[in-house]
Amino acid sequence: MVGIVIVSHSRKLAEGVKELLDQMVKGNVKVELVGGVTAEPGTLGMSPMSVKEAIVKVMDSEGVLIIGDMGSAILSSKTAIKMLAPEMKEKVVIADAPLVEGSFAAAVEISAGGGLEDAKRAAEESKSLRKI
Amino acid sequence: MVLAQVFTASDLIEVVYRISLCMQENEKYLTDLDAAIGDADHGINMNRGFRNAVERLRQVNQNLDIGGVLMTTGMVLMETVGGAAGPLYGMMFTNMAMVLSGKNELDKKGLSVAFSEGLKGVQEIGGGTMPNEKTMVDTLYPAVEELKKASNDSNVGLVDSLERALRVAEQGMKSTAPLVAKKGRASYLGERAVGHQDPGATSTYLIIKVIYEFAKEKGG
Questions:
Q1: Inter-chain residue contact B79 with A78, CB threshold 8 Å
Q2: What are the pLDDT digits (tens) for A56-109?
Q3: Catalytic residue among A9, A11, A91, A120
């Protein structure tokens, strides 16, 4: 099953997103969080190392989808992927998607049996989802 | 030719230490620049990153070659900076480290190759960043071009090549003020970012300035 890594500047924001996902998919999708600078507790941001660790934790044969909030979340994720072993590298993708809606759509897709590309597409399609 | 036309590994440890002092001195300046168009943490983040790099280098200092000093610095920056500057400067230093692995001396040719690789890392992680996007690339790109020119000119020494690089780096840094940002937090501001010099372009300039001043002092 595809794993999800949520990357946010804020630990609280990442935890909130995970809370939403867990409720929706009943904990059936592996979700790992990255948020806040580990080396400096209480500081907003993240490090590529923490993203890399999160990827490794949820990695299995189907791969890992990363969804980040903005800016350095994406830069850190790209850098983390570069640091992975080659066989792992090709099984990790970053969704160009909003954090809350994208994570939610991906989790639903994965819990329904979707693969990595399906999850990525679901997350990215959520960008154009109308709320009103 | 002057004797001191190379950097050694211990020189580079000293350079990292001086960059850390410079970031400490400029913490407020960089953070104020970032407050205008970003999230007001660039100075704090850079200061924290380089302070941690200095500490780590003190701990592992034994027998590091030039690549080792730069790799250690880059990894610590990635771990501890927190903002976008972490992966960007982290990639810059680790990319430089890759081409200098096993080296105990760095001449102007090596410096040029290393900076060129460093720039590639920054551009790649940034998504193909080019000048005029109001980023650190506005400073780094022209500096790399100047270092390349100097490395092929036998009349130019290490210090002179850095002086030339610093001059164009400063122009590049200043050129970011009138630009609309295409990358990073400032890109959300659109026209409102116009008139503010980019914090990342500024920290890159400061780093090149420290390297130049160290080289000059060492005797060029």
A1: no
A2: 999 999 999 999 998 889 999 999 999 999 999 999 999 999 999 999 999 999
A3: A9
Domain that holds residue A31: 1-57+95-132
For chain B, the residues whose C-beta falls within 8 A of a C-beta of chain A are: 39, 41, 45, 48, 52, 75, 78-88, 90-91, 125-126, 184-185
Q: Which residues of B touch A48 (CB under 8 A)?
A: 78, 86-87, 90
The neighbouring-strand residues paired with A33 are: A6
Edge-to-edge, what's the strand order for the sheet holding A31-35?
A31-35, A3-8, A64-68, A92-94
In a domain, residue B59? The reply is yes
* ipTM score of complex: 0.81
Q: CA nearest B83 in A: which residue?
A: A45
Interchain proximity A37–B126, CB inside 8 Å: no
CATH of the domain at B194: 1.25.40.340
Chain B partners within 8 Å of A76 (Cβ): 86-87
pTM summary value: 0.90
For chain A, what is the domain count? 1
Contacts of A98 (CB under 8 A, 6+ apart): A126, A127
Q: Is residue B2 part of a domain?
A: no
A66 given a catalytic annotation? no
Of B52, B123, B44, B60, nearest to B91 by C-alpha is B123
Do A10 and A73 meet the contact criterion of CB atoms below 8 Å apart?
A: no
> Which domain range does residue B12 map to?
7-219
d(CA B147, CA B151): 6
